[in-house]
Amino acid sequence: MYMMAKHLHLTAVVLSILLFVLRFIWAQMDPTALQRKWVKIVPHIIDTVLLGSAIWLCVLIAQYPLVTGWLTFKLLGLIAYIVLGVIALKKAKTAPMRWGSFVLALVVLGLTAKVALTKQPLFF
């Protein structure tokens, strides 16, 4: 069960990141591509699978955010990634703001991945 949950989670992580990057590229080159129905629906499905598999993994390993430091960091990283992604894709009014938010979102993802691999929180 653990390996199945982990593989599902990692697959959803990769798909979420790839789709975020693709949507950002489209936002820069062809904003009309973001209006396609599947582009509005699929990210929500992937992110729901990502969150569901994360909860499943927490239950399987009996470790939880706000109790375990590295999972708390991952939760905060997820929230920061979402906020930065929304800014990069929708809210930023200028190109430097869009690019800055995009790059910061990727940095947050990198830090979160490092914590996931090492199981050591960076700031706790």
Automatic annotation (TrEMBL):
Coiled coil: none annotated. Keywords: Membrane, Transmembrane, Transmembrane helix. Pfam families: SirB. It comes from the Bacteria. The chain crosses the membrane at residues 43-62, 69-87, 99-117. PANTHER family: PROTEIN YCHQ. This is SirB2 family protein. The lineage of its organism: Bacteria, Pseudomonadati, Pseudomonadota, Gammaproteobacteria, Alteromonadales.
